[in-house]
Write a structure and sequence with these properties.
By secondary structure, this protein is of the alpha+beta class. It has a single domain, classed as NADH Oxidase (3-Layer(aba) Sandwich), CATH 3.40.109.10. It contains eight helices and six strands, in the order ααβαααβββαβαβα. The longest helix has 22 residues. The radius of gyration is 20 Å and the shape is globular. The relative contact order is 0.20.
């Protein structure tokens, strides 16, 4: 049985808690999905540190069912772009409902994905449904939930490092596993270009829901 160790906990005073919570909120509230990238190279150490951060996310039975594949080779990025655009074109022209297209219109997106070529690095996140230990197959648990939480950590880490990204989920995504030579137990979960924003980049003027729209205090019944 795996042992236990003391939890390294630093008790903060309420004022310090509020200060930290407010600063982190203000940091995250400035995060935006960016689709136009500079060609400035991201240091390898930064990429590795943000992925180490993503790897601290909780997971079902601590199975850590994720794999992060970093792509910087221009030829491979271009292969991914061509395959992604093929699926996206089909989606925009035949698969998406009118309501879906109407909801996307204010964001100005279409099936062209220039950012895949332009971003200096792509991070492709794979979800592992199971793992092998020799001839034995060991199942992973709550895979989608666990990987989704890790992607949330990754987005925050990217923004905290002064970089930009977006979550791209062309459907279907089997081509990513084929191009990157991933084993059959790994399924592509999301593709994230990472880099610096292009000078003068514009983003949609979106509004986030107010706290009262997304939170409810459960009232204690007397």
């Amino acid at each position: 049985m795996q042992g236990f160790i003391p939890y390294d906990f630093n008790l903060l005073l309420p004022d310090e808690q509020v200060r930290r919570a407010r600063e982190f909120y203000e940091l995250c509230n400035r995060r935006r999905s960016v689709r136009e990238f500079s060609d400035k190279v991201v240091p390898k150490e930064v990429i590795e540190l943000i992925l180490k951060t993503a790897g601290t996310a909780p997971s079902g039975a601590n199975k850590q069912p994720w794999q992060f594949v970093v792509v910087t080779e221009p030829n491979v990025k271009h292969q991914i772009r061509l395959a992604a655009e093929k699926e996206e074109k089909e989606s925009y022209e035949h698969r998406m409902s009118d309501e879906w297209l109407e909801d996307l219109e204010p964001l100005g997106t279409d099936w062209h994905k220039e950012f895949i070529d332009a971003a200096p690095a792509l991070i492709v996140v794979f979800a592992l449904s199971y793992e092998r230990e020799g001839e034995k197959v060991r199942k992973n648990y709550y895979v989608k939930e666990s990987v989704g939480i890790a992607v949330g950590f990754l987005l925050a880490a990217i923004h905290n490092a002064g970089l930009v990204s977006l979550t791209h989920t062309p459907s279907p995504m089997e081509f990513l596993g084929k191009i990157l030579g991933r084993p059959e137990n790994e399924k592509a979960f999301v593709l994230m270009p990472v880099g610096y924003p292009k000078d003068g980049v514009m983003v949609p003027d979106i509004k986030r829901k107010e706290l009262g729209e997304i939170m409810r205090w459960k009232k204690v019944e007397s």
